[in-house]
Amino acid sequence: MVFIIGGAYISGAEVAIFSSTYGSAGWLSVATILLGFAGVTSLVFEYARVRNTTSYRMLINDVLGRLSVLFDLLYVVTVIYLLSVVMSVAGAVLQGGVCRTLPCSSILPLRFRLTFVVVPLAVVVYLGAVDERGTYGLLDWFLNRVGYLVLAAVVGFSLLVFLERYPQIIGIFTPVERAAPSSAGAQRVVWKGIVYVGIHLPVYPLIIHHLFESRDGQQQHIFDSGKQSLVSGCLAGVVMTLPFFLTYLVQMGYYPQPRIIEAEIPWLPIVANIADPIAVWAYVLVVASAFTATTVGLTQTLTLRLSETVDRISVGPFAGRNGISGRERAVVLTGLLLVAVALSQYGVRNLISIGYVMFTLVYLVAFALPLGIGGVRHIYGGHRDDSDRGGG
Question: What are 90-93's contacts with CB under 8 Å, separation 24+?
Fold first, then answer.
């Protein structure tokens, strides 16, 4: 859950770009995101149940066949980009939050210096949490709890804002005072919601193994019927959209103030209005936790995908290789993280506005469309051909 509710989510920038910029019309984007998450999640749940795909590899092989290796490479690029967004958020929040209460040196941009401090720490945590056998119980424990921490923080900060600015929030949606820019056409706002769902599509193959449990020595899906998959998928969609919706309402309490809606980190000035500096430091702590968890989680999946890709290519210098060694993993991981650090200097809003659309278009064609077509064919046709599906 932290991959969706953490990272850039806690900044408020995504909500501002994809919904709040359009004022009262932004609810169309929120509704699209809810329907998108609920629909895709339900489809993935049921697809995994019907096809008995118990792992990332089986799902990707099942959906894309021999082109699955291209998905792996695309996933690596996406993770690097998402890491740059998360790092940019963390740097901006730490800079804005810390500089409110402590003197900041001007020798180097604080965001740049803090990022280089935190990232190596995340690498150390990652290498300590994941051993050569790929076990990461401590990592899963950390990721799960940070996700709930971020969700609780968004809910808590939102309630504090609602108590103070609920008249302004309600006023935005009344017929007399309804506020929306001229650019807020329905198709444009709905497309923004689709883009937001699209950038999170690569998360779904990663959750497949959580849908199965061991029964009588065999891996069995946790759902016994299509109805359970549908209901669970819809509930998951609500949970994934809830922080976005709450943040949208919070930002409507300040609409159309540019210092909030156009801020690089909209949540920071909002939190500062609540109880500066206590609330600001609490917010910085939550962001730091989300940043660490998201970075560690993404790097963990990144190295697993790289190792699997090297193992599958098996040509040229990769022939006979069984994944990558621990030393190679550390070197490659550090190099890729430094690339993400460099990209993060372009700023949160620039990275989100440009990259999200590009990756969404690719994933809609390379994953969502094949999944949708194959899902309908297999689910309603009851097709269970297990040929050429690959293992975990």
Answer: 90/114, 90/115, 90/118, 90/287, 90/288, 90/291, 91/115, 91/344, 92/11, 92/264, 92/265, 92/268, 92/347, 92/348, 93/11, 93/265, 93/268, 93/283, 93/284, 93/287
